Amino acid sequence: MIITKVGRRGQITIPRQVRQWLNLQEQDRVAFIRAGNAVMLLPLTHTLLEMRGSVPVEGPQDFQAIRQQVIAEHGQRIGKGEA
């Protein structure tokens, strides 16, 4: 277990060993993902633009319909207190 302190303004330093495990460099971005009472630290190594085309799809996609579906599902999760 590695422990670090929270600073005055809520900032933390990611310990060297953790940075090495995750291969984090200066200016890298990370995401904090809540999972129940735990929080996971996930390195963001690619942008969405860099991922474009990495998932094979069949035929044209209706992005407007996809956005509406995601918004509706997110609203349901918020209503249930899950988001």
Protein architecture, described:
It is a single chain. With 83 residues, the protein is α+β, with helices and mostly antiparallel strands. Helix content is 34%, strand content 17%. A two-stranded antiparallel ribbon has the order 1-2. Strand 1 and strand 2 form a beta hairpin. The longest helix has 17 residues, at 63-79. It is flat, with a radius of gyration of 18 Å. The mean pLDDT is 90.
Record the strand order, biggest sheet.
Answer: 1-2
What is the N-to-C order of secondary-structure elements (H for helix, E for strand)?
HEEHH
How far apart the termini lie comes to: 28 Å
- The geometry reads as flat
Oligomer: single chain
Q: Based on DSSP secondary structure assignment, what is the total number of beta strands? A: 2
* Helical residues, percent: 25-40%
Number of domains: 1
Mean pLDDT: 90
Report strand %. Answer: 15-25%
Q: Structural class, from helix and strand content?
A: alpha+beta
What's the main sheet like? 2 strands, antiparallel
Provide the gyration radius in Å. 18 Å
Separate helix tally:
3
Main attributes of the structure:
two-stranded antiparallel ribbon; flat; 2 strands; alpha+beta; 83 residues; single chain
